[in-house]
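Consider the tokenized backbone below.
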């Protein structure tokens, strides 16, 4: 059996010291500064007190051993599991987003890998869209900013939790080492600003559900952008999960600015149309732009007879993966006439690049190229 001690040795000593200090433990350094003692209880009655000793500047191996011993004491003292205590420590340096999956999708405390993969992919896109909204202040945008992608990449996928199957996403905020002042407050980290925006946006979504009207999302100050709405839609449509329940836990290191009350947010398939309406109203009216797209075909579709691609009048469309200088990597839906579809079929069969010109526009989450002309293969 693996010892409980080895399960938690990766926890930083500083996180333990900060957490226990916040919980009322007394902190005292030795005269030579080499030792740090944390005490809980009455120093005059040794049997009623708990003391933890840490060495300052100790070699990594010794510090890990001291941390492991302290954690073993603390999980017994607070009567929690090692993972629960680790989560409490993590909460100091991270804001947390919890997402629950309904029981009907859970089998033996697990879900299908495809669902999990789709959720993680969509959540990362949602975080990046939220960060771009925070950085730009725009209600809609064509391309996710590089700094926003960097932020999303720094977020972590935490432990799943039991009960209804759930995910934990950790958004880094770090420790608040600013001195406590009576006037003013320290500048909050960027990650906190993003999570606060998400909380406000999802709160406005709750209000929209209550009113059966997208207006609360549209008029909310510093809330969701059209792109954020699109990514929330993706969490439902791409995962195949009809309902997700989300909640947010803010790190106690950084007090919330303004009133952000704890609440849960239910994202359900039946409310997707509200988000689509909000996205449409938030998005700037854009004139379709003529573009020439060059990329690989990733999907072909036709409702007609595959053996009669010329005379059959059924619709034909393809998806092309295009790395746009203006919009970044996107997938474009392109309806085609019969002859152009045959050209696309040959490009897909031979693995060649496909080029086509047309009018590019965005409809919700989809990029669409209308009036496609001059299709050709590029070797």
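A designed sequence for it:
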């Amino acid at each position: 059996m693996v010892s409980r001690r080895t399960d938690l040795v990766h926890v930083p000593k500083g996180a333990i010291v900060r957490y226990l200090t916040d919980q009322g433990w007394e902190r005292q350094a030795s005269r030579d500064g080499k030792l740090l003692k944390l005490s809980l209880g009455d120093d005059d009655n040794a049997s009623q007190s708990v003391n933890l000793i840490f060495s300052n500047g100790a070699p990594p191996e010794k510090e890990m051993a001291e941390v492991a011993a302290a954690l073993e004491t603390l999980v017994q003292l607070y009567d929690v599991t090692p993972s629960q205590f680790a989560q409490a420590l993590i909460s100091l340096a991270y804001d947390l987003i919890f997402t629950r999956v309904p029981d009907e999708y859970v089998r033996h405390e697990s879900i299908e890998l495809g669902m999990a993969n789709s959720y993680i992919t969509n959540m990362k896109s949602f975080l990046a869209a939220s960060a771009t909204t925070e950085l730009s202040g725009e209600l809609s945008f064509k391309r996710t900013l590089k700094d926003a992608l960097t932020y999303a990449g720094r977020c972590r996928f935490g432990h799943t939790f039991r009960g209804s199957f759930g995910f934990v996403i950790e958004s880094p905020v770090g420790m608040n080492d600013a001195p406590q002042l009576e006037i003013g407050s320290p500048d909050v980290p960027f990650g906190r600003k993003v999570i606060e925006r998400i909380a406000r946006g999802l709160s406005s979504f709750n209000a929209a559900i209550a009113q059966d009207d997208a207006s609360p999302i549209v008029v909310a100050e510093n809330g969701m952008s059209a792109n954020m709405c699109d990514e929330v839609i993706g969490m439902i449509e791409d995962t195949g999960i009809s309902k997700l329940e989300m909640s947010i836990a803010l790190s106690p290191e950084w007090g919330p600015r303004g009133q952000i009350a704890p609440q849960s947010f239910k994202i359900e398939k039946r409310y997707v149309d509200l988000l689509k309406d909000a996205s449409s109203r938030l998005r700037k009216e854009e004139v379709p732009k003529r573009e020439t797209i060059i990329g690989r075909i990733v999907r072909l579709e036709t409702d007609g007879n595959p053996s009669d691609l010329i005379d059959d009048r059924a619709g034909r469309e393809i998806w092309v993966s295009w790395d746009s200088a203006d919009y970044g990597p996107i997938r474009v839906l392109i309806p085609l006439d019969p002859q152009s579809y045959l050209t696309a079929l040959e490009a897909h069969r031979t693995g060649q690049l496909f080029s086509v010109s047309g009018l590019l526009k965005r409809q919700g989450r989809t990029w669409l190229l209308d009036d496609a002309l001059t299709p050709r293969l590029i070797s």
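The longest strand covers residues 289-302.
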